[in-house]
Each structure stands twice: as C-alpha cells, then as structure tokens.
Write a structure and sequence with these properties.
heterodimer, A: mainly beta, globular, B: mainly beta, six-stranded mixed β-sheet, 0% helix
C-alpha cells in the first residue's frame, strides 16, 4: 500500500524558512510526480507546484516563484518543499500529493496527512 | 482569485441529486478532477479525467463537462457526502500550471 508520510508540525518566526518532507512508502519516488498543495485555516486548497512529466521539470505557481523550492532525494524516496521569507499568511496545512494510479490525468489520488506550519512572532 | 469558479455553498435533500459546478476557460481544453474534503482530513479524489472514479468511490459520483464548465453530480446524496468539494485543472496560461477552484460546501439536509 502506497503512503505519503509527512514531517511534523512546525512553528516559525516571520522571515524564516521551513522545509517539509514527504516520504514515499510502498513505491519509488522516481516513478511518481509529486506536487504540493496548501490550505490556510478555514480557506480552500491552493496548488503550490510540482513535477511536470511532460517537460521533465518542477513547475511553481506564480505566487510562490522565487520563494519555494521543491526537491527530491531518490535515495530515501523523500520529497521536500522549502518555503522561505515566511509571513503570517503562510500559516497553513501543507500537503504533498501524487498521481499513483492516475498518471497522465493531472489528478492526485494519493495525499500525505498534512503538515501544519504556523508563522508567528 | 481563482481561475476556476465554484459556488461557495450548495445544499441537497437526503437521497436527492445535486450538481456542483466549476467554471473556467481552461476547462475548454482540459478535464477537471474533483476532490472531497471532510473537516480535519486530507482531500480525497472522487472523479478524474472524462468521468473516472478511483477504486472505492461510490458510483453515485459522476463527472461531466461542457464548454467552460465541469460538473460533479451526486445521484442519491447520502449524509456522509456532506463535505467540501474542490475542482482542479490546468490554468489558462498554457504552462502546465495547476489551479484549484475556491471550493463548494455541500450540505445534505
């Protein structure tokens, strides 16, 4: 059974960076396209970026360009999302999500459990 | 603001049929996928592609698309279907970027 297991909750000060991890179990990261989605308290889902297999590169939502970096460690099947210059508006639950059985359809059928990131002085 | 527009809230009587819509220019070229999210839980994919359901999703969930509008239909809504529903697709930039709709809160009466 494929699972995405994310790192624990984080509390950061404004201006700091946060790095959230997402470990793939039961499958190989290189065979998946990993994406990151966030959800502020009481708000909707927001796509941040992910791997685009058509172009073979990671793409980012314009809103986060220059502030977010998504990387992968294939030796440990772990994906990472680092967000810098944090502000209070970045307080949210961050999810990793991928397309295991629905590859090529732009959908995400496997989600991590979410990581709460709180930005507060 | 989102490039995919959803009604903020929709209600349906128990056992009746409800349609949740998602509008956007990119839907003329790309299919939407639909996600169900209950409080405190991660989203769950319920419909993807033209009208496909992942394993384990009841067949009362179906999807369709016409022009710039994608729809999620629940035929015979159950109490457990009360949740937030989000559509997702590519944006209209042509750069393979993705976007979510603002979400629809479904209440089953």
């Amino acid at each position: 059974q494929v699972q995405l297991v994310q790192s624990g909750a984080e509390v950061k000060k404004p201006g700091a960076s946060v790095k959230v991890s997402c470990k793939v179990s039961g499958y190989t990261l290189t065979e998946l396209s990993m994406h990151w989605v966030r959800q502020a308290p009481g708000k909707g889902l927001e796509w941040m970026g992910g791997f685009d297999p058509e172009d073979g590169e990671t793409i980012y939502a314009q809103k986060f360009q220059g502030r977010v970096t998504m990387t992968e460690d294939t030796s440990t099947d772990t994906a990472y999302m680092e967000l810098s210059s944090l502000r209070s508006e970045d307080t949210a639950v961050y999810y990793c999500a991928t397309d295991l059985a629905v590859a090529g359809t732009d959908a995400f059928d496997i989600w991590g459990q979410g990581t709460m990131v709180t930005v507060s002085s | 603001s989102s490039e995919l527009t959803q009604d903020p809230a929709v209600s349906v009587a128990l056992g009746q049929t409800v349609r949740i819509t998602c509008q956007g220019d990119s839907l003329r070229s790309y299919y939407a996928s639909w996600y169900q999210q209950k409080p405190g839980q991660a989203p769950v994919l319920v419909i993807y592609g033209k009208n496909n359901r992942p394993s384990g999703i009841p067949d009362r969930f179906s999807g369709s698309s016409s022009g710039n509008t994608a729809s999620l239909t629940i035929t015979g809504a159950q109490a457990e279907d009360e949740a937030d529903y989000y559509c997702n697709s590519r944006d209209s930039s042509g750069n393979h970027l993705r976007v979510f709709g603002g979400g629809t809160k479904l209440t089953v009466l």
